Predict the 3D structure of the following.
Amino acid sequence: MSTDFYELLGVARTASADDIKRAYRKLARELHPDRNPGNKEAEEKFKEVSRAYEVLSNDESRARYDRFGEAGMSGGGGDPFGGGFGDIIDAFFGGGSPFGGRTGSSGPPRGQDLEVIVDVSFVDAVFGSQQEVRVRTAVACDECSATGAAAGTSPTTCGECRGAGQVRRVRQSVLGQMVTTSACPRCNGAGETIASPCSACRGEGRIVKEISLTVEIPAGVDTGQTLRLTGRGAVGPRGGGAGDLYVHLRVAAHESWRREEDDLVTDVPISIAQAALGTELDLDTLDGVEHLVVPAGVQHGHEFVLRGRGVPRLGQGGRARGRGNLRARVVVEVPTKLSGAERDVLRRFAELRGEQVNDDGIVSKIKSAFS
Ligand SMILES: [Zn+2]
Ligand SMILES: [Zn+2]
């Protein structure tokens, strides 16, 4: 279902609204269910083509599609963060496009930005990691070295705009002379025309391909954050620069640790006797085992704070600025199953402190009253 909409309609990315309409009408006639009764394949294709036209026939949704691909189109399903990129972390690969595309205001347009969601384990999010990410993107066509021209030929300078990609129109109006500049209609702003297009890329100078990228996940990231990888999006047509790749992060929960901002928090269960008399225990932290001395009389909910042992604080450019704290929270567990001997000891304890406690008879009476 992730077929490129332009490919589906068989038009170039630079196609005009009229070209798109024409291509759609032609395909819709061919694929219409009335003309292909019982042909499931044609029916599917008809639906896909209709969807592609729906998106590309509207300037606004077409622009969004060009930027984000199909991920940008989903009304609610595919976008877990409600469409906004609240927290964007920049520049892990630095500036330049890895595809060496041309940039600047003239020349072929830049490729679209892409989005991908990456699941990160709790520990990888705390300490950082490298993740293999697969993206469906556009890469430069090798057959024609991204020129779009068939082997042995080369693009020629557009006669209409003489390579500028833009045309100026001078118009007389009541207010005097008006000069407007717009993309050249003959070459769609490319400044060049191709007499015989490359067969591999149909003159686009790029092909759609699924590629694998290694993404550096900085230490301290959390769900809802997005990494922007400059120049790692789709390349533009005919040597145009590459867009950016937006990596949305989704961090999994951990069975014993949770995050509160930059702090790592865990529960330390101890018994009533350990709380009253004190104890020593080994605490498994994400950095290794920590020896914890619990003093006598520690209260339920007390927090032992180990400074600087929490989550790295994410600074500018993904570099860490120190770490949060590690907080171990005491949970005093009251035993629910007591042996006869344990019960006797506790009853004796209560007696010494002059505390009223239920006797066995009352407990069983209460139990039967509530059952
Ligand atoms: Zn090509
Ligand atoms: Zn031109």
About this structure: The chain is about 20% helix and 30% strand.
